[in-house]
Structure formats: structure tokens, C-alpha cells
Design a protein that fits this description.
- It is built from ten helices and two strands.
Amino acid sequence: MSKKKRIAELLKKYKHAWVFSYILLYVPWFLYLESQVTENYYVIHSWIDEKIPFVEYFIVPYLLWFVFIAVVFLYFFFTDVDGFYKLAKLSFIGMTIFLIISTLVPNGLELRPHFFARDNVFVDMVRMLYQADTPTNVFPSLHVFNSLAACIAIYNSETLQKHRVISGASYVLAGLIILATMFLKQHSIYDVIAAFVLAYALYQVVYVTEHKKVPKLEQQKKSTVFSK
């Protein structure tokens, strides 16, 4: 097989890669917000946030979020095109809603500790996170929302549901990531709740509505067969 033909077949097989072009919209928009929303923003706060202690060890699952989301996306990209499209649709619609909210209602937090009671490698990692990530544009939490989106995709995958250890480990990791957003003072409980509400709402649109369409299509096919 010639090199050109091989490339052509790969492009045809993975033509759904066009979906990743969403990054060309998301990244510039998000970076713009990060540079512009520096003051005069709505401070999100709940009395519950004050009751949640700072625990630096949660930096580990927090950073594992990047690996988790990448692995889930790549798994569906290479093994389940339909599942990939649904995951991307759910995630990217939610991320766009996040951008719109952050644009219309600039928001941020004042939860980060001014000093640390301990000094260890995990605290050093948190300090680096704080330097790299501003405490603005936090509602809803994308760490929480995208973790939930990944779990929804895994839950709706017939193949992954056969591997209970993998799916179970994914849910546990997602739960730790969600807790990490609050224990690291990266998000208010309001950000977390909003992410759950958004994920549930979009789940109804992307997955539940699609499931309802399938029986109707099968019924139409049967009707067509019998009419012949």
C-alpha cells in the first residue's frame, strides 16, 4: 500500500478529528477572559466554603484531571465514534455556556489562603497552580463539569460497563477531582452545584433525547418492512 493511500485511509477513518477544532474557539476566548477579568468581578461565596478546610494533598487528583479528560476523549475517539461525538457535544456545549456566563457576568473567588500552615511538596504544587491559574472565571467549574461529562460517557458505553474496575475507578477519580476543587479553594460550592445542574441539563439533551429517538427509528423501519 502506498504512503498516500495509507494517509488517505487514516484521514477517512479519523475524519471526526475535525471536532477538536473547537479549541480554536475556546482557547482564544478563555485567554481573553483571563486577561480582562482582573477586577470589578462578582465574588462567588458561600458560608459553606468557610467550613471546608484547605487540604493540599488534593492537588494530586486535581492535576490528574488533565490526564483523565484526555484519556477518556482519546479512548472514544479511537474506539467509539458515536460515543465520541456525544461526549464532545456535551463537553463543548457546556464549555461554551461557561464562556458566555464568564463574559456576561465576570466572576471570581476570594477563597485562597494567604499563608499555608504546612510546607511540603504538595503545598509547593499548589503555589505553582495559584500562580498559573487566576481565581477568576470559575462559574460553573469546568473541572467538575468535564469530569461529570466523562463519567456520563463512560456510563453510557456498553463496552466500558463490562469493565467494572475501569468504570468504577473512573467514577472514584472524578469524585476526588470534584472534592479537590473545593479543598484546594479553587471553587466555591456554588460553582460545583452549577456544574452538576449544567451536566444534568445537557445530559437530557445529548443522551436522553437520543435514546428516545432510537426506538422511534426502529419502529419506523419495522413499519416500512411490513408495508412492503
